[in-house]
Write a structure and sequence with these properties.
By secondary structure, the protein is of the alpha/beta class. Helix 4 packs parallel to helix 5 and helix 8 crosses helix 9. The longest helix has 16 residues. It is globular and about 45 Å long.
Length: about 240
């Protein structure tokens, strides 16, 4: 019994100290180095003016631009048939994916507002938007290659075919990040990409939501669901992982 308790304690401490991520994360200076890693040539299309704004001091270092560069670069160069965006919000990330791969079908999932307000969608969510607000940005742009799904990913199973690029930015609770990724991994093939938002190993002791996301990814490594490298561009809050 004592041995089992000690084993569990060591396992918990291993997650808490991000043992796997400390080895897996590769830090890159800019998105140009990300292109170099994968032999890509195309630069992302960044036509959303809001990425140049900042409402919070955390974003004064052009964090939103770095985030958009990461997602846009992956989507434009992978040439995906199917993209999945978890956490629609107003629809900026879905629009970014749709613009950078006009041939793709972007499926974007957002929790129904009533379930967000009741707490069924976890604790660390950005906002419980009204239904008319969910996806309003991409609808205003008349982007036709986006399909809106209203569902709680705690219960929803992807049924959209093989996923080539997935961007996870829904509930930031550790268990949601873990389960959202686990479900996606059942519907990908080698060479597909999974990206997590609010991922930055240098900020895990500063921001609760970033710590929670990184704990979810750490647990995926611990349980053998992930292996290999996670690439992180300086000043971004995005982790980029290619499925092997």
């Amino acid at each position: 019994m004592i041995k089992r308790i000690r084993s569990k304690a060591r396992r918990f401490l291993g997650v808490d100290k991000f043992v796997h991520l400390q080895h897996a994360v590769i830090k890159l200076n800019d998105v140009g180095e990300l292109r170099k890693v994968f032999g890509w040539q195309l630069e992302p299309i960044l036509d959303d003016p809001t990425i140049h704004d900042f409402d919070y001091i955390e974003d004064v270092n052009q964090r939103c631009i770095r985030d958009a560069e990461c997602l846009g670069t992956v989507v434009r160069n992978v040439n995906p048939a199917v993209c999945l965006d978890i956490g629609t919000g107003c629809g900026h990330s879905a629009a970014l994916m749709a613009v950078n791969a006009p041939q793709t079908q972007v499926h974007t999932v957002n929790i129904p507002p009533e379930e967000a307000l009741s707490g069924e969608g976890g604790k660390l969510i950005t906002d419980a938007l009204q239904r008319k607000k969910i996806g309003s940005y991409y609808r205003d742009r008349n982007l036709a290659n986006i399909t809106q799904i209203l569902a709680n990913t705690a219960k929803w199973e992807p049924d959209i075919g093989t996923i080539n690029v997935a961007f996870i930015d829904g509930c930031h609770d550790t268990e949601f990040v873990y389960n959202d990724t686990r479900k996606i991994l059942k519907h990908v093939k080698p060479g597909s990409f999974v990206l997590w938002h609010d991922f930055n190993l240098e900020l895990v002791y500063k921001y609760q939501w970033i710590r929670s996301v990184c704990l979810g990814v750490e647990k995926l490594f611990l349980d053998g669901l992930l292996s290999g490298r996670v690439f992180h561009v300086r000043d971004s809050w995005v982790g980029v992982y290619r499925v092997s």
